Fold DNA polymerase IV.
Amino acid sequence: MVSRSILHLDLDTFFVSCERLLDSRLNNKPILIGGVTDRGVVASCSYEARQFGIHSAMPMKLARELCPEAIVIKGNSATYSAKSNEVTEIIRGEVPLFEKTSIDEFYVDMSGMDRFFGNYKMASELRSKIIDNTGLPISFGLSQNKTVSKIATGEAKPNNQIKIDYGLEKHFLAPLSVKKIPMIGDKTYIALCNLGIKHIHTIQETPIELMEKAFGKNGITMWKKANGIDPSPVIPYSERKSISTERTFDRDTIDVVKLKAIMLAMAENLAFQLRRGQKLTACVTVKIRYSDFNTYTLQSKIPYTSADHVLIPKVLELFNRAYDKRLLVRLIGVKFSHLVNGTYQINLFEDSLEMISLYQAMDKIRDKHGDRTVIRAAGIEAKTISRFNPFNGDAPPLLPNRRS
């Protein structure tokens, strides 16, 4: 039986690295990427900023207090998407099977390739090619499974690489903090500490029955991961199945005219992203979060389309049904899902040649000069549209903005 060999690749401080490629003056300085207002959060930060105790998902206001000299950048998801796609295409051209788990993280199944190349040598060459072609720092861990490789990558950072030889997984994991195990969050860590378990070797020495008694099925999974056991496969990379956007307001609002204008602009922009990515959607979802943080969503199935004049009315219809006029709104969002490859099909009974020509002309201008260059007057209230995906984690548009 061929032993498994799983490579984990992670682009170091990816958003920050992309910004530094654009402006070398940012090198070696504390950088914060994320919402620029006090209500924003840190999406990414440089290692220089982390020395002040700053981490991702921290409120921007607190991060600024911890490091007043930090440079705050709103970020550009189109830029990050373009760079991520560059790395993806390099990996696609070099390996037979890989999984893209986020915009900056990949797994590669290299099982059985040792007989031809030598997996560590091939992984090193792949890493060098990514660095040489994109200018982005990247680290990797190589072992017999996903868990050990991911933890190894974390130990290799920044911009380095580690191989854990077969049979040495437990020895490598033993001295590390239990927080290094990917599934262990803050609450589980506190619970483990309360039991006197702070390092992985303690879990290794604990009978699996006791872990199950204390944590149920999660206890069994924790024990297996601590012992370097993880049979989960590398899932072949496939295209995303949804695209979405959201807007969090600096001040909660009840201005329905403004809300509808932004919803319209979101729908219009996402429809353009669909057409540019040659995708069609069959499900529209609207999301509203009120000032009390209660969140409501409504969705509707529709015939496959990427047309503004179909999607915008549906989005506004769902918004009108979901909106409670008595409450202040904190956040709104739109999501198109059930995506398939395809181009917009003309409806012989409803569409005119003039309408189709108009779409093509507007999209051509947007492709050349930016996706907000041509917009409907009703959506002009939305000066900016975030493209972070609130439904499936952070995600960029289907294709990067081609504006230079």
Notes: Residues 171-226 form a domain with the DNA polymerase; domain 1 fold (CATH 1.10.150.20). The chain has 14 helices and 13 strands. The two ends are 50 Å apart (CA to CA). Residues 286 and 315 are 7 Å apart (CA to CA).
